[in-house]
Every structure is written in C-alpha cells, then in structure tokens.
C-alpha cells in the first residue's frame, strides 16, 4: 500500500517509520522542511506541499494526518479538498475533538476515519493502540496500515461511526488524568509520610506483581530514577488539559458523574498557581515519560 503522511513530529514520524518497516510506501509532508528531509532519509518519498503529496499518491489516496488538533487539521483538509473524492480515505490520528471529526467527516469528499492514538512517542517500539471511527469499508481497507502502526492486529479496532474513535480517545485521556493524579497523591503521601522511603524502589516493587502495576507506574519508577527521589527541579505545573476538559464537558452534558476525572483536571488548573505540590510535579514528569511533552522546571 502507499500512504501519505502529513505531520512528521513526535507521532507522525513514528507512523512513517512503522509503515515503512512493514514494507509499504510512504509519501510525506510537513511545514517543517527538516522533518521532511529526515523522513526522506529514512526511505519516504518527500513532497513539497500538500497538493504535491496528493499528486504523488495518484488515485485511491490513503492519507494519514498527524498534525496538532484544531486549525492545522482544517488547514490540511482545505488544501487536500481539490484532490479528494469518495474512493479516497483520510485518517486523522491526532487528538481532535470528536464533534470536529463528525463535522469533517460530513464535509470531506473522501471517507474520513477519526483515529484516537494512544501510546505516545515513548510507546513507539511496541506500537500504538488505535481507536477508529468512520465507515467500515475504509477501516477494512486500511487494516494493513493499522496493523503496522498499532501493536499488531489486536492493537486497533473500529469503535463505530464518525466521531466514535476520537470520543473513545477523549475518555481514555480523562482516565489517564485520574490515574496520574492517584499515583501522584500516593507518592506525595509516601514522600511526606512517616518513613524515609526510596520511591523508585517502591514503584519497582509495586510493578512486580502488585494490583496497581501499570505502564504509568513504570514511568513513575523511571521519573524517580532520572530526576531523583524528590523529583529534583520538576516544577509544580502540569500543562495540557484540553482533552480532559472535553471529557468533563461531555460528562456534564450526559449527566454522568465523573468526580475523579474532574478533580484531576482541577488539580492541573490549580497547579498553575505553582505552590509546589509533589503529586502535580510527578504528573508533569509523567507527561514527559509517555508523551515527551516539555517539563516546566523550577528556576
Ligand atoms: N505526543 C503524544 O503523546 C500524543 C500526541 N497525540 C496527538 O497527535 C498529534 C500530533 O502530536 P505530536 O506529534 O506530539 O505533535 P508535534 O508538535 O510533535 O508534531 C506536529 C507536526 O505537525 C506539523 N504541522 C503542523 N501544522 C501542519 C500543517 N498545516 N501541515 C503540515 N504539517 C503541519 C508540525 O510542523 C510538526 O512537525 C496531536 O493531535 C496530538 O495531540 C496523540 C497521542 C499521543
Ligand atoms: O493523548 C495523549 C496521551 O494519551 C497526549 O500525550 C496528550 O497530549 C495528553 O493530553 P494533555 O495534553 O491534555 O495532557
């Protein structure tokens, strides 16, 4: 198969590498020329613009967008629009708001797949977990690409119609916020409690057989190993928040109580007052662990 990939940052580049590795051909574009040159060196065919990428793909285009959510997705779709028709397929693998994806699916001539992507840059070696919404035929057609980008055939599935992939990913991120918050609180109590504990050792011990073992807990272990028992200069400031905000807004609309997820989001907002809470400093460092997001540091 031949796949066009637009957006070659932390995530898009992994899509390119994994699809190439599986033996497919890849045409790439990014507004950053160096990213295009780097991907070309890895074996992809470079394009000089989105129109050029579409032209290089010929008929029955399969295109994966991995650009930041919001305006960049609409900008890319606007540029693609003159080249698309109903036997083409566009995948949005970013963290788009699900209602935007429904709108885009309705207004794009191509079949549109909204694909929630989990695993982060740090998960590249294993492959991602992909939650896909949109037409069944388009999902079926792209199974070889999803097999390559995901952990394998079990790492992806069609969730339902347009919007459902990004909806499931939105809720996934709400869960992610709450898990990070609860690990943060537990370690904050241990850090300030009765015993002088080695927190890397605690995390390691928990990761070996404990009920609460998980990848996020492995990333806690990594954070203590790399930053030190007191998290060094990691600041009490947790960035991000859009996907958690959408989750809470949706829960309010559906009248579903999700107090833990709401409280985790509130903690992030509270962190912007910078009063030095350990739990939030750990949450911030974990965002680097899985997503390679910048860690604000104490000055
Ligand atoms: N980093 C993470 O842990 C995860 C990120 N995501 C989502 O994946 C998407 C991409 O994220 P990252 O790769 O982390 O971001 P990134 O900032 O590392 O890369 C984005 C890339 O898109 C390019 N770009 C921006 N506008 C463009 C346009 N109009 N045309 C072509 N290229 C354009 C940028 O130059 C950059 O190379 C986002 O929606 C993000 O929320 C999803 C799951 C995990
Ligand atoms: O989707 C992700 C992980 O699953 C991304 O890392 C995302 O950026 C995290 O969300 P936020 O920026 O709101 O913390």
Automatic annotation (TrEMBL):
* GO molecular function terms noted in the UniProt entry: NAD+ binding; NADP binding; phosphogluconate dehydrogenase (decarboxylating) activity
In what pathway does it function? Carbohydrate degradation; pentose phosphate pathway
* Residues bound to substrate: 95, 118-120, 172-173, 177, 268
Q: Which reaction does it catalyse?
A: 6-phospho-D-gluconate + NAD(+) = D-ribulose 5-phosphate + CO2 + NADH
Domain (6-phosphogluconate dehydrogenase C-terminal) spans: 165-296
Top-level enzyme category = oxidoreductase
Print the keywords alphabetically. Answer: Gluconate utilization, NAD, Oxidoreductase
Residues the entry annotates as binding NAD(+): 7-12, 67-69, 95
What SMART domains does UniProt report for this protein, alphabetically? 6PGD
Identify which residues the record assigns to the active site. 169, 176
EC assignment: 1.1.1.343
- Superkingdom of origin organism: Archaea
Which InterPro entries does the entry link to? 6-PGluconate_DH-like_C_sf (IPR008927), 6DGDH_YqeC (IPR004849), 6PGD_dom2 (IPR013328), 6PGDH_archaea (IPR032883), 6PGDH_C (IPR006114), 6PGDH_NADP-bd (IPR006115), NAD(P)-bd_dom_sf (IPR036291), Pgluconate_DH (IPR006183)
Q: Name one Pfam family in it.
A: NAD_binding_2
Q: What are the BP-aspect GO terms?
A: D-gluconate metabolic process; pentose-phosphate shunt, oxidative branch
What is the role of the protein in this entry? Catalyzes the oxidative decarboxylation of 6-phosphogluconate to ribulose 5-phosphate and CO(2), with concomitant reduction of NAD to NADH.
Record note on quaternary structure: Homotetramer.
Q: Which PANTHER family match?
A: 6-PHOSPHOGLUCONATE DEHYDROGENASE (PTHR11811)
Q: Return the similarity comment.
A: Belongs to the 6-phosphogluconate dehydrogenase family.
Q: What is this protein called?
A: 6-phosphogluconate dehydrogenase, NAD(+)-dependent, decarboxylating
Q: Which organism is it from?
A: Haloarcula hispanica
What gene makes this protein? Answer: gnd
